[in-house]
Amino acid sequence: MHAPVLVLKDSLKRESGSKVRYAIIQAAKAVADVVRTTLGPRSMLKMLLDAQGGIVVTNDGNAILRELDLAHPAAKSMIELSRTQDEEVGDGTTSVIILAGEMLHVADAFIDKIHPTVICRAYNKALEDAIAVLDKIAMPIDAQDRGIMLGLVKSCIGTKFTGQFGDLIADLAIDATTTVGVEIGQGLRDVDIKNYIKVEKVPGGQLEDSRVLKGVMINKDVVAPGKMRRRIVNPRIILLDSPLEYKKGENQTNAELLKEEDWSLLLKMEEEYIEELCMQILKFKPDLVITEKGLSDLATHYLSKHGVSAIRRLRKTDNNRIAKACGAVIVNRPDELQESDVGTGAGLFEVKKIGDEYFAYIVDCKEPKACTVLLRGASKDLLNEVERNLQDAMSVARNIIKNPKLVPGGGATELTVSAALKQKSSSIEGIEKWPYEAAALAFEAIPRTLAQNCGVNVIRTMTALQGKHANGENAWIGIDGNAGSITDMKERKIWDAYNVKAQAFKTAIEAACMLLRIDDIVSGIKKKQAPGAAPSKPKVETEADADSEQILPD
């Protein structure tokens, strides 16, 4: 006799087969269409209302998609692509979504006729050949040549809102990344943007007042403004990760006092402890003491009496940046201090008032390996968009420092790859030929979208571009996103970083393959019941029911 079968019909929903694949392709196209108009220098801006009720005005693909709340799992997977691209290389977040959407769209024609595994095999072959074409047309450059670096960063942020401000953002990005770059051997350099470049946004002033400081700026004032110096030339800096105050009990502390003198003895012990801490610091003759923890009034008194300025409760990340900028070492216990831990690399410590707030500057450092980018602007919305663009620009500069190779922009790379794949498709035998050709066509989505956003005749422009690239020649001929004309990208200095393009191709094709191989979407989310309705009980079926009915209906 069969055991009873428990069927949760209300909570388990299943879709399978070609229906699912069509739904996935439609969801991917919908996500791609959201950001399609934001590609290129003549792109549109999107105004978004975020979860907190704030307004975001941007044309950055990743910034737009992360604010969307989509129900379809395939759409959510597409949004992850732009986040991956942003974290890995910092640019090309819109291109990767458009390319992935197009790869799925062209597969729509033969998804019922050809098995998804065969399509994925053809797509992977196309990816290998596309990367080979990229390697062939890539142009090595000298990362030390500021002119080339400036041209590259400008062409990458020319599509952004801040492209209208000329060289300003590009200069800031190059200055910041060259400051914090460190040698890692074999002629390679590494740039840690996240930890050692801080972007400080201060509303007010003009955008032209923005600059890269040769050091660090923090939103703090000295502990005792009247007693401590606010300007010190060539300061000796000590950085601490410990409190300069008496330790409080962890949970509950009981002290039994029998005589009145015991109370004064207890207070004296506390004072002596703090005095000892301060004397251990003062014997190194510092000018500035910065701690991440608290600083008691008594410690402030001892430090100010010896002419030492102090800043307390600093963020860990800011403390790390100051250590990198002035050459100090963060110390956990004052009794372990050594002369080598004192930072002497800073040229000036100064506290300035900007608007209503005080900012401490530790600048004019000898060899800073951390810096602060000070951004000024009319409003917070403007500053937020400038910061997003600056992050992209710094990522592009970092990519070139790590891998100094360029490829043509303006859709020229995609057209060259497309033409090369079309030529090679004639030598591919069997059923894989059709999806391989389709992948070649999908690469044309980028120049086609650029032409659409320029407002030119798309069919004429694309036909002319395909004619120029037909024999695998004219690899640098593309579309100028501002005028919509067909020009040589080398002359116009419209370039892309090799890393950005290679990552976009890999991410888009691998994601398309993953989504095409999905044949089932099973949802275990329960439907919301109407208020007051009795909760439905799982139905226990008998042997006869189990034999006569499908457990999971299509």
Report on this structure:
The protein has 554 residues and is of the alpha+beta class. Among the domains are: 13-140 and 407-517, GroEL-like equatorial domain (GROEL, domain 1), CATH 1.10.560; 215-247 and 266-367, GroEL (3-Layer(bba) Sandwich), CATH 3.50.7. It has 19 helices and 24 strands. The chain has a four-stranded antiparallel beta sheet. The chain has a four-stranded parallel beta sheet with strand order 14-13-12-15, sandwiched between helices. Strand 12, helix 9 and strand 13 (288-291) form a beta-alpha-beta unit. Helix 3 packs antiparallel against helix 4, helix 4 (93-107) runs antiparallel to helix 14 and helix 7 packs across helix 12. The chain is elongated and about 95 Å long. The two termini are 27 Å apart. 42% of the residues are buried.
Attribute tags:
single chain; 554 residues; alpha+beta; GROEL, domain 1; GroEL; four-stranded antiparallel β-sheet; four-stranded parallel β-sheet; elongated; disordered N terminus; disordered C terminus
